[in-house]
Amino acid sequence: MPRLVRNNLAVYDDLADRWWDPRGPFAGLGWLAASRAEQIRPAANGSSVLVDIACGGGLLQPYAAGKGYVHIGVDLSPRSLQVARSHGVRAIRADMNQLPLADECAEVVVAGECLEHVPDPYQVVAECCRILKPGGVLIVDTAANTVLARVLGITLLENAPCPGTPPRGTHDHRLFVDRRRLIRTCARHGVTMRLTGLRPRLLDLLLFLLRRRLAVKLVPMAWTGLLFQGVGTKADTRLLPGP
Ligand SMILES: C[S@@+](CC[C@H](N)C(=O)[O-])C[C@H]1O[C@@H](n2cnc3c(N)ncnc32)[C@H](O)[C@@H]1O
């Protein structure tokens, strides 16, 4: 039997027509997009920029739309970028490790479910901090590098015969993120980050599995060892008192 390729990024091109299927392989990403958007405050003005790192098919767009930002998406998957564009995201093809964007160009940077797909997520986080304006907000969500995250997030989820589960091979536990190092990296780049655990609301999940509901609300929990969200603000040194 051929060996399963892990962190198989080809799935995002191969399954690009399923991005918006509420019972398809990316259903959970839609739930996460809704949760991520709760952390985005309304734009200060019409030229405020939100950069959506590894935007995929642009699932954040309907939630961000009402907040008034210019929504710029970055991804490597050409077919996903096409889908994102068709949903109104200004999508550009680029590697999140090296963003072709100016320093301090964005009021909001979101990096949803992408840090666990690169060998050096801390480099990506440094890039996110670099393009963030002072006073701007960085929002991330990803998987923690724990045994339980590996068992539940890969062994169970990727093999479960249920709707909404990611394809086999999507994840590689060796890329899951060290929470302390994430916080330290942010701090080194001027962003104070706080983490919260996320879990599905159980009744919603049950109704989703019974085909009685399409969306599942994710709710916060104190434990961050599985799926977690981080929200941080970049220090605005212009506001510090002078000597
Ligand atoms: C799990 S999806 C998340 C998509 C989106 N953020 C969401 O939550 O709906 C991961 C995305 O990361 C993209 N990706 C993986 N490696 C990348 C890289 N080095 N640079 C840019 N995008 C990348 C993939 O193409 C895919 O769209």
TrEMBL record:
<keyword id="KW-0489">Methyltransferase</keyword>
<keyword id="KW-0808">Transferase</keyword>
<feature type="domain" description="Methyltransferase type 11">
    <location>
        <begin position="51"/>
        <end position="140"/>
    </location>
</feature>
<keyword id="KW-0949">S-adenosyl-L-methionine</keyword>
<dbReference type="InterPro" id="IPR029063">
    <property type="entry name" value="SAM-dependent_MTases_sf"/>
</dbReference>
<dbReference type="InterPro" id="IPR013216">
    <property type="entry name" value="Methyltransf_11"/>
</dbReference>
<dbReference type="Pfam" id="PF08241">
    <property type="entry name" value="Methyltransf_11"/>
</dbReference>
<protein>
    <recommendedName>
        <fullName>Methyltransferase type 11 domain-containing protein</fullName>
    </recommendedName>
</protein>
